[in-house]
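anyone seen this seq b4? input:
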Amino acid sequence: MLQNISGKLLLTILAVMYMPSASAQLAALHTTPSRLVSNEEPVAPSALLEPSAPQAHRFWDRANILLFSGVAVSRAMDYASTKNMLSRGRQEILIPDDVVYSTAGFPALEAAATGTSIGVSYLLHRTGHHSLERWLSIGHIGVTDFGVARNYSLKSRRR
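predicted toks r here
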């Protein structure tokens, strides 16, 4: 019986916390008439719930240039760390050997990854997803730098 009462109490608390309309109604019950008189224009509830639009910006602004440069530097570090890892006798597990050991293929893959990141960011920019546009580059830098740190931290394995 105690579990049933505590469960109902928990549900009631959660309902009040996560339902702003319920807490607004409770506040309205305790409002004195002097608080109800106001000189301000009433605001439609839908206007209060609409999120503010992200600030529009040019695609090649300073922040994006820095982020895209960070992606390019991260990809260059990935290239260097992978070559270093391979020279120490380790194996690349994500990319096929014919690409990794190619003198033109592997740099082209790194350049294509950078270009793809910029292209997807541009698509996000054009569709108005300005926050995702920036977070894509931040995530790309983070994942690539994690791979770089992993490549350099592997112990050498001589053949």
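The mean pLDDT is 81. Residues 62-153 form one domain. kinda curious what u guys think
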